[in-house]
Amino acid sequence: MKQRTPWAWIPTLYFAEGLPYVAVMTISVVLYKKLGISNADIALYTGWLYLPWVIKPFWSPFVDLIKTKRWWIYTMQLLIGAGMAGVAFTIPAGFSWQASLAFFWLIAFSSATHDIAADGFYMLGLSVRNQAFFIGIRTIFYRIATVTGQGLLLLLAGFLETRTGQIPYAWSIVFLLLAGVFVGACAWHRFILPLPADDKQRSEVSPRTILLEFGKTFVAFFRKDGIVPALLFMLTYRLGESQLVKLASPFLLDGKEKGGLALSTAELGMAYGTVGALSLILGGILGGIVISRAGGLRRWIWPMALSLFIPNIVYVYLAYALPDNLMIITTCVGFEQFGYGFGFTAYTMYLMLFSDGAYKTSHYAICTGFMALGMMLPGMVSGWIQEMIGYPSFFVWILLSSIPVFFVIPFLKIKQ
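RESULT FIELD:
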């Protein structure tokens, strides 16, 4: 194995893992809102972009079978770069917005596949000791990608909108920049990634044996003790958040005549993408600390579920009060995102505990598929609901949608 310091590739690898997810799930919503697409269409079509992460467990065995994980990493980064370039060229060219959506699909499938390969390579390219040491580093750089996408890139788009006066042209530049980042990432990782001896094409394993083993894994998952309340928890814990995340940016961007707060793209980047994203990170860090040092998930599941529910009240306030003060708006967004980060920690920890056993890695992948499904389906209809009842009633609906999980939690079997 050619030795490469992990500091040379862990930060860039997980930055490259987080950025396309943000582009697909967050930046696309803001882009289409600025292009004048309706909330119903934005939520429906961008909601479908969760699908690659929903079905990711079904093709993950073949990433292990075909080629090497190293090959999958830099190849997917090249495809992500091509997808970003495709979005850049279709936005100002007069094509329908569905054309750019097709390139977002390419980015989504490539990103989901990249996740599989990167997480597998992490275990092959590092010793067990280094795996433990760098797990925090990889999380930090994934979060930096979140701040970059939701914050810095939106600030750049807002600056270019103001400077050029042309929204499509401004966003085209942003996505060309992203395309260059991923072409550069492909070249960098092609050169710098180590060559672990275990990262090789598995010619001794056939697709048939992979499918048989996957079938056993799937059967074992659905035979787990407490599977029904576990699935209900996975699908309902983020029921409110799955709808809020699709409409938060449109609400902040819409004019007062539509019931929104009329923020500019740059102001959105500051409030939601920078302060909000940093609050999300801080909430997640605090959540991890209290679970690990103050009694475990069994003690904290209720407070964390409440922290996901209660902060959503700020959007009810914002929708009814429609404040003009950016500091008030930013504080409210930061408060909601902090609560989301703190509460989401319980969700992640539960998935890890429920996945424990003989097929831990595969079962965790299946859990994340259900997690993505729980985000996809409600998110797809959220725009239609908002257009039917308006922003104030929609945010009250978000609060009501967050209640069902509290009837599920008492039936969970939490080990610690």
